[in-house]
Design brief:
Distance between the termini: 109 Å
CATH topology: Rossmann fold
CATH class: Alpha Beta
Strand order of the largest sheet: 2-1-3-4-5
Number of strands: 5
Strand content: 5-15%
Helix content: 25-40%
Shape: globular
Largest sheet: 5 strands, parallel
Structural class: alpha/beta
Oligomer: single chain
């Protein structure tokens, strides 16, 4: 093919690309995959795993309410009634079962503190195992629980020792939103990093108190 004599001088010649536009190169399907911006699903935040300890006979309704209220934001689980699960009086065996089956993997143990919670031996054992594992500990007063004349609430003794030492965190008001519970859990986890405040040397309860 013979080119016109002025094709080099004409910037718009069909035989050469425009100086203002780069030549269009054909793009293969493979190269379009290589250079396409990757699209990934949004990363979902990991749910905190929360173990709840409570008086099964008196506060089961509040434990159910806690699970219903917060299960979308947290992975909530409980002990499924240790009285029926563990048939032993050996403290070492009991602690191992509690730690391996319930406490391990949890970010925090939350003790729902009703009027009689401190009298239950399995609540004390669960708190003991939590502290043995050096996990975070949070106490929450069950709505309707009445303080004594000095304005103090009855809580499990082992939990009380750690509230006083400031290893455990404590709420006298039920958290109304997942955000409020998140704030309390993160504070409990922050406190639990100071292991020198942990108090777990009292003897484990051998029976329920009257």
């Amino acid at each position: 093919m013979t080119l016109p004599p002025d094709w080099r001088k004409n910037p718009y010649s069909p035989y050469r690309p425009s100086p203002w536009e780069p030549p269009q190169q054909p793009v293969s399907p493979l190269s379009s995959l290589l250079y396409a911006a990757p699209r990934f699903p949004p990363i979902q935040p990991m749910k905190r795993k929360v173990f709840i300890s409570y008086h099964h006979e008196l506060d089961q309704g509040w434990a159910n309410h806690f699970s219903d209220q917060f299960s979308e934001s947290f992975e909530v689980f409980c002990d499924r009634s240790l009285d029926e699960e563990i048939d032993s009086n050996d403290p070492e065996y009991i602690n191992r079962v509690i730690r391996e089956d319930y406490i391990t993997g949890a970010s925090v143990t939350i003790v729902l503190c009703g009027q009689e919670t401190g009298k239950r031996k399995f609540v004390d054992w669960e708190i003991h195992s939590t502290l043995h594992h050096q996990h975070a500990l949070l106490g929450i007063i069950v709505p309707g629980t009445q303080p004594d004349p000095q304005g103090l609430y009855a809580v499990p003794t082992r939990l009380h020792h750690n509230i006083v030492s400031r290893y455990a965190h404590f709420l006298t008001a039920w958290p109304q939103t997942p955000a409020a519970l998140t704030t309390a859990i993160e504070e409990a986890i922050r406190r639990s990093k100071n292991k020198s405040l942990l108090k777990n040397d009292m003897e484990m309860m051998g029976r329920n108190l009257p």
